[in-house]
Amino acid sequence: MTAPAIKRVYDAPEAGDGVRILVDRLWPRGISKDKAGIDLWLKDIAPSDALRKRFHGHPEDWQEFRAAYAEELQGAAAQAAVAELRRLLDAGEVTLLYAAKDEARNNAVALRMWLEGA
């Protein structure tokens, strides 16, 4: 399994992106489905609304967010989405898409870290 790339959904699609997967629970503001170039939307792999709201605006809580998110990823719906993601990663290039402004601390980064066992 290769590690997925990570990009903001607002960045233009590129040929090397492979399968572009939105890993947010909400559709990103101000971008059309055509312009986003999203191949798959895995809502069930995204953090819950409660966790997202708790973390929003509190980047200092990054470690707590990652731990809570890792717990949520153990749920049945999330595990089904994780299985789909792993299948796609085994098949080729994958780019995880997120809408957050913080490029270092967001759910796509936390998800990749979790997938890599960090």
Q: Roughly what fraction of the amino acids lie in strands?
A: 5-15%
Number of helices: 5
Into which percent range does the helicity of residues fall? 25-40%
C-alpha-based Rg, rounded: 13 Å
Description:
The chain is an alpha/beta fold. Helices cover 40% and strands 13% of the residues. A 4-stranded parallel sheet has the order 1-4-2-3, with helices on one face. Helix 1 (33-36) links the parallel strand 2 and strand 3. The chain is globular. The two termini are 15 Å apart.
Quick tags:
118 residues, alpha/beta, four-stranded parallel β-sheet, 40% helix, globular
Secondary-structure blueprint of this entry?
Layout: E1 5-8, E2 19-22, H1 33-36, E3 40-41, H2 49-55, H3 62-72, H4 76-91, E4 94-98, H5 107-115
Parallel strand pairs: 1-4, 2-3, 2-4
Could you give a short description of this structure?
The protein has 118 residues and is α/β, with parallel strands linked by helices.
